[in-house]
Design brief:
By secondary structure, the chain is an alpha+beta fold. It contains 12 helices and 19 strands. The protein starts with a strand and ends with a strand.
Length: 337
């Protein structure tokens, strides 16, 4: 029996749902490469550990940029490792359903299909990410009711009004959780003359980051390298300071959500005003983002349960009923039938 898989291949992380078993893989979308041989040494958190050990022969690579992969060979090798871990043992080649950005070109779609096929799939089906997200959130997308999805990933955010099994209006903005990290990094460098790492900025965001005034009085200590002396120093960052540092990328997400709602047909806009906006993706975990979106877009905002897993759970549900969804949504399929 084949172990069919649904894959949410994101810029920040890869999640895999195995038919009959649920989510079986959740790791960072990063690859550690041997700089001399270009061999994949490790992927995910294992890769981060090796990179962090300071080995000069190993470099870290994120094969996806802005939600699409720019390193075909490295992405293919990453997928091969992921699929081998998610479906180990001697089983027939699996069918794979994989999510893709709604604004992906035909060339990008075919390249993703080829990468998954080379990695060991018998058959590949592509599904647009907002549709999988809506299904994962349990929304009635096949009914004549408008639902507004806001999915905030690592390097991009997708907004879509979905209805009758399709995307009616949508916006994609090249900003996500990584941009919030960069904003914190740049603030510390420009204000204090201290350089901090990518992961340190992410830890600050998680510890004290917020999109809306919360009045918590929280602060975080971050260790970095003073640019003028090269010495290791400690910087204290409070909640207000971090929120102000992240304001620009957050405002870009807000504006894209407002444009998506404004461009939807009036009857669907009315639905959204009543039912609200559904927030998902790793960025949904930012404290107060739901409050700011609700205030700026003037709609109720609902944060999905386990927002990082919403897309892959929706894709997994589609995998369980693949023929039905393929007919209803005219999903793209490649590989042996």
């Amino acid at each position: 029996m084949a172990r069919d898989l649904a894959i949410d291949l994101g810029t920040a992380s890869v999640l895999v749902y195995r038919l009959g078993d649920g989510i079986v893989f959740d790791d960072a979308t990063v690859v550690a490469l041997d700089a001399l041989t270009n061999r994949v040494v490790a992927v995910g958190e294992d890769a981060w550990r090796i990179i962090g050990s300071g080995s000069g022969d190993v470099v870290g690579v994120r094969p996806l940029r802005d939600g699409t992969f720019t390193e075909f060979e490295i992405t293919q090798r990453l997928l091969e490792v992921v699929m081998r871990r998610a479906a180990p043992g001697r089983y027939p080649k699996p069918r794979v359903l994989i999510t893709i950005a709604s604004d992906s070109s035909a060339v990008e779609r075919r390249a993703l299909e080829e990468a998954v096929e080379i990695s060991g799939a018998k058959q590949v089906t592509l599904v647009e990410e907002p549709l999988a997200a809506a299904i994962g959130a349990g929304l009635p997308i096949q009914e004549p009711i408008g639902s507004l999805i806001v999915d905030i990933g690592g390097a991009r955010s997708e907004m879509a009004v979905v209805s009758m099994g399709g995307i009616v209006s949508g916006q994609t903005v090249g900003v996500g959780g990584f941009d919030l990290d960069v904003a914190i990094h740049d603030h510390v460098r420009d204000t204090y003359g201290v350089a901090i790492g990518e992961r340190a900025a992410d830890e600050v965001k998680r510890a004290v980051g917020s999109a809306f005034p919360m009045g918590s009085g929280k602060a975080a200590l971050v260790v970095g390298r003073e640019l003028s002396s090269g010495n290791t120093v400690e910087v204290r960052l409070d909640e207000v300071e971090v929120r102000q540092a992240m304001a620009d990328p957050i405002n870009r997400i807000i504006e894209a959500a407002r444009r998506t709602l404004a461009e939807a047909p009036p009857e669907l806009t009315h639905d959204v005003l009543e039912t609200g906006m559904f927030l998902m993706g790793g960025g949904a975990l930012l404290t107060g983002l739901d409050l700011l979106l609700s205030q700026e877009c003037e709609v109720p905002v609902h944060v999905a349960e386990s927002p990082r897993e919403t897309v892959v759970r929706g894709a997994g549900h589609m995998l369980e009923h693949l023929e039905r969804y393929r007919t209803a949504f005219q999903l793209e399929r490649s590989g042996r039938r």
